[in-house]
Amino acid sequence: MKLKITVDNKIYEVEVEAVDNDPAPPPTYIIQSAVPRAAVTPAAAPPPSSAGPVNEDKVCRSPISGIVVKVLVQPGQNIQPGDKMLVLEAMKMETNITSPVSGVVAKVNVTQGDSVQSGLVLVEFE
Questions:
Q1: Ranges of each domain in the chain
Q2: By three-state DSSP, how is residue 67 classified?
């Protein structure tokens, strides 16, 4: 007997022979399609700044890789801890980037539409 089996939208024609000599019920097999996986490479460290070491208390780094959807602060603006500074989109989800400290924004290193990597300095404080 010939059968047509479809797996992942591909049609396979197989030939099957029925055997009635075995009184035991036929075994049941579960066939699942394997999902190909991409090779995972470790994230590269952010490039060193040419201005020397960065004071981590005076910067806000990106926690994820993504696209800048909104920039909500500008240089000279006073901010408090928890104030929303940027919105990043990653995998169709928006993430609010909030201020870790109170102070004055010295420099915003990204603009709307920029692609950012995890660890990149987004905002610098005075």
A1: 58-125
A2: strand
Query: Looking at the chain, how many residues does it have?
Result: 126
Q: What is the largest CA-CA distance in the chain?
A: 87
Which of 3.40.50.720, 2.40.50.100, 2.30.30.760, 3.40.50.12710 would CATH assign to domain 58-125?
Answer: 2.40.50.100
pLDDT digits (tens, 9 = 90+) for 93-106: 999 999 989 999 99
**Residue 62, number of CB atoms within 10 A of its CB:** 23
- pTM for this predicted structure: 0.57
Q: Whole-angstrom Cα distance, residue 87 to residue 63?
A: 12
Whether 60 has a pLDDT exceeding 80, the answer reads yes
